[in-house]
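Sharing a chain and its predicted structure for anyone who wants a worked example. Both blocks are below, sequence first, tokens second.
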Amino acid sequence: MRTYIDAIGKVEVINDDIIIALNPPYRDGLKGLDGFSHINVLWWCDGCDDPLSRQKMITSAPYTEETLGVFATRTPQRPNPIALTTAEIMDIDSDKGILIISWIDANNGSPVIDLKPYTPSLDRVENPVTPSYFSHWPESLEASSNFDWSSIF
């Protein structure tokens, strides 16, 4: 089965701003988003869109000595290199199709394939269970901003 995905825009890093720049046909889709503080950005890991990366099912991770299946990690090397980032919305210009967000772990120019508002009733889990090697990681997006990620990756 083949599935078609059309990029709705791309990530742009301009000075200190992280921008989601939507293609003109998708700009009207921003209507009503200004009532939300956070957004889920689905983007394409175009740097890992090659046959070898798409075939990789077992990977090593810097946070454990175990090898893991790609579905137990956030590695961009996976059958479909789709990534998900939750970010704070800093500003929206619906006319220009511009969304300024707090951060994203995508590269400048990475294709954006969808945007969904962050809604706690659907996106928040009160008591998630994770493997013990994550026990020292932050418990929220807000706490993550002060965490020393360079000690992990």
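Comments welcome. Residues 13-119 form a domain with the Elongation Factor Tu (Ef-tu); domain 3 fold (CATH 2.40.30.70).
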